[in-house]
Amino acid sequence: MSLAEAASQADALAAEGDERRLAELRTRWDDELEAAARSRDFRERAVAYRAISQFRYRQKIELLRRGLEDESPACRGSAIVSLEALSRDHPSVINNVRPLLHEIVANDGNDAVRRLGVMALRNGSAQRDTIGILTALGDDDEQGRELREAAAKVAQALRRKAGPSK
User: Fold this and answer.
1) How would you classify residue 70: left for phi > 0, otherwise alpha for psi between -120 and 50, otherwise beta?
2) What pTM value is reported for the model?
3) Domain of 99: which CATH number?
4) Residues spanned by the domain of 121
5) Which of 88, 86, 156, 94 is CA-nearest to residue 125?
6) pLDDT digits 0-9 by tens, 27-69
């Protein structure tokens, strides 16, 4: 079984609520996931970053932080997808990497990675700086339509979450 297959199985176990079998699977695949995240091959790193959320590895957020700084857009995107998934019930996951996400959203060379960053910021707390960055992106005609629309939509959602003062 490959890491991707094990991660898919872990995701299914988590969805079923089978914590015992999920924990066993985590234990069996922990070393391989760590090794894959440090691989020279970007494809192995991307699978590892995505697998972190499928295994529900909250203790591996630091690996995802490293993934945000990876040279490969695929790896950065996979790390963001995992952060977004892990942050759905835990905004602190996004809040802890907010400066890196701001940098990605504002300056990454890959528009798909930027859009993923925008969507992940939706799960964090509604902070004024994030709303400002997203609003500016949404208003910037030099940005692609999909990025502008996503940024405007998330900025609006964060303003609603923040209440009338932001």
Assistant:
1) beta
2) 0.91
3) 1.25.10.10
4) 3-162
5) 94
6) 999 999 999 999 999 999 999 999 999 999 888 999 999 999 9
Identify the residue whose tokens are 């995701």: 11
Distance of CA 44 to the CA centre of its chain: 17
Q: Over the chain, what is the mean pLDDT?
A: 94
Residues 27-35: contacts with CB within 8 Å, 24+ apart? 29/3, 29/55, 32/3, 33/3, 33/57, 33/60, 34/63
Q: What are the tokens at 121?
A: 């910021």
DSSP string, 93-138: HHHTTHHHHHHHHHH-S-HHHHHHHHHHHTTS---HHHHHHHHHHH
Total domains in the chain come to 1
**Which residues, at least 6 apart from 11, have a Cβ–Cβ distance to it below 8 Å?**
54, 55
Q: What is the pLDDT of residues 78-107, one digit of tens each?
A: 999 999 999 998 899 999 999 999 999 999
pLDDT the model gives residue 78: 97
Q: Helix 98-107 vs helix 111-121: angle between axes, to the nearest 10 degrees?
A: 140
